[in-house]
Description:
Elements: H1 5-15, H2 19-23, E1 25-35, H3 37-40, E2 48-56, E3 61-65, E4 73-76, E5 80-84, E6 90-95, H4 112-127, E7 138-145, E8 152-158, E9 168-173, E10 179-185, E11 194-205, E12 208-220, E13 224-225, E14 232-243
Antiparallel strand pairs: 1-2, 1-14, 2-3, 3-4, 4-5, 5-6, 7-8, 8-9, 9-10, 10-11, 11-12, 12-13, 12-14
Amino acid sequence: MDSRPEVLLDELIRAHGGLDRWQSVASLHFSLSSAGLAFSLHQQARALLGLTVTVHPHARRVELLDYTRPGWRGVWTPERIWLEDYVGAKVSEREHPRDAFSQWSRQVSWDALDMLYFAGYALWNYLCFPFLLTQPGVALERVASGRGEGVRRLDVVFAGDFPTHSSHQSFHVDSAGHLLCHDYVADVIGAWAAAANSCQGAEAVEGLRFYTRRRVVPRLGSRLVLPGPTLVWIEIDDLRVVMAG
Length: 245
């Protein structure tokens, strides 16, 4: 089996619908509910329950409808986030939102904009896999043995300004090129926040593959994944893909 990372990435792209089809996507729309210990510990236990989400993958923009209250909208972009009321008036905003996580207070409490930033970049990353890995600022490092028989692990390095969890991440994939688990450190939570994000459900829409059920648990090193607690769970339903043109 070819161990070159670019060969594995090509396999992943084919297994998820192909780059040409992905480049024709204008937007993704879905219902989202997500919660877990990581959100509860930051005073945001119910922030992501019962939302409607739009992801603009190529524009790097995510919109959360009904965020903080019915009819309000949270908008994420890498360098600016903001909250709009039901008539579109801006309620609050933050430039360079990732910088705020360097403050000690973020270890124990997040505000609505902090939660918006985390949710925005995470959803953009998850819904854009594996095509995300073809973008500037992403370096394929190596292919190694993953967790489980026949599982391959693709190690990737992201540039420091890339909107993602951490610089070093690993993707465990099966023989069909489907994602089983995603390893990273959630830097905005802390340098200690090593996580294993397992894919527990997937759906094919418009010829593209998306992971609609995820569960995140703590991880110790590259091999040991703890059974719990559940740091984050994610449920995506009613997924719709709008193609350009």
